[in-house]
Write a structure and sequence with these properties.
Blueprint lengths: L1 E5 L8 E5 L9 E10 L2 H8 L15 E9 L11 E5 L9 E5 L3 E3 L6 H20 L7 E4 L5 H12 L3 E6 L2 H6 L5 E4 L5 H5 L2 E6 L3 H8 L2 E9 L12 H7 L2 E3 L5 H16 L7 E6 L3 H9 L6 E5 L1
Parallel strand pairs: 8-9, 8-11, 9-10, 11-12, 12-13, 14-15
Antiparallel strand pairs: 1-2, 3-4, 3-6, 3-15, 4-5, 5-7
Helix pairs in contact: 2-3, 2-8
């Protein structure tokens, strides 16, 4: 089968198309014929050797796919064959035509939800749903969403609005600002006075980190909550528990355990199937062009979710 190999850390060019043996469904496993591959910004950081994970090489990268179950292994209900599913792959192996995963790891795609949309929600929908739950967003809150033109950010805007909050969407640069949808106020966090334009807030969803996230922390009122879930700026926000306590702010550090995250994934898929949650798929690349996808994400020219298509 066709895959994308990563045999060294470095720039996008280290993602090289190649071949690998077809997977076989073992005990309790299924094989999924992959239709769409999820990509995340953190995968670009892992590839560069600067991210939070440093896998042993060589690997086939990728941790989320969607497709149709083609075969089932021993101990698996044979009726699962033909089912549309999305699934994580355990940290690697996703940039491929086929994957073998535990049958217990798959999520059936609800009727009425397109498979590409389900893949776009696999990581981002789970994360956004968990963040809104963990910060207890409620009617009357004023919420700041950083990277609001991105995959998670766009969903956070929708979920916070649905919870009754007003939303300040922050994005970097005029092109990204123009792509923010649904926010009550939109600000450019690359502008020198962006915090004045944003104003005080009750909740910060920090997907950028670094100086931007640290500045966003300064906008929180007493009783505010801040959840950091990404470091697109290259580092985590410089906010300590002592800083937060002094200002009466709660730093949300946990999004729950494995079962909680499964519940949040199911919730995101169900909400999307009912038309209440809409992922934005900004760009698609052939599997063999995974390097181009990574280059686009790193250049900050992408909007919403980036998918690979085997």
């Amino acid at each position: 089968m066709r895959v994308v190999w990563m045999k060294e850390f470095g720039g996008p060019e280290v993602l090289v198309p190649g071949e690998a043996p077809d997977p076989v469904a073992g005990d309790g496993q299924v094989v999924v014929e992959v239709a769409f591959v999820n990509t995340t910004f953190v995968e670009t950081q892992v590839r560069a050797g600067t991210g939070p994970f440093h896998p042993e090489l060589p690997i086939v990268p990728g941790n989320g796919v969607g497709g149709v179950i083609s075969t089932v292994g021993p101990g698996v209900d044979p009726d699962l064959a033909g089912l549309r599913v999305v699934t994580s792959t355990g940290g690697s192996g996703g940039y491929a035509q086929r994957v073998a995963v535990a049958a217990s790891a798959v999520f059936p795609v609800p009727d009425g939800l397109a498979l590409d949309a389900a893949v776009a929600l696999l990581a981002d929908g789970r994360t956004a749903t968990a963040l809104v739950h963990a910060t207890s967003v409620r009617p009357g809150d004023r919420v700041l969403v950083e990277a609001a033109a991105g995959g998670v950010g766009g969903l956070l805007v929708q979920l916070a609005k649905a919870a009754g909050a007003s939303v300040v969407g922050a994005a970097g640069g005029p092109a990204k600002v123009a792509q923010v949808q649904g926010a009550d106020v939109v600000v450019d966090y690359l502008a020198p006075d962006w915090t004045s334009s944003a104003g005080e807030v009750d909740v910060v969803f920090d997907g950028v980190g670094g100086e931007i996230g640290t500045a966003a922390f300064g906008l929180l009122r007493r009783g505010g909550r801040m959840a950091s879930y990404g470091l697109a700026g290259g580092s985590w926000s410089e906010v300590s528990e002592e800083d937060a306590a002094a200002r009466g702010v709660t730093l949300v550090r946990s999004l729950g355990g494995a079962e909680d995250l499964r519940t949040f994934t199911k919730s995101a898929l169900a909400e999307a199937a009912e038309g209440r949650l809409l992922p934005v798929i900004g760009q698609r690349f052939p599997l063999e062009k995974a390097s181009d996808a990574h280059a686009a994400m790193e250049s900050r020219t992408t909007v919403g979710k980036t998918l690979l298509v085997p």
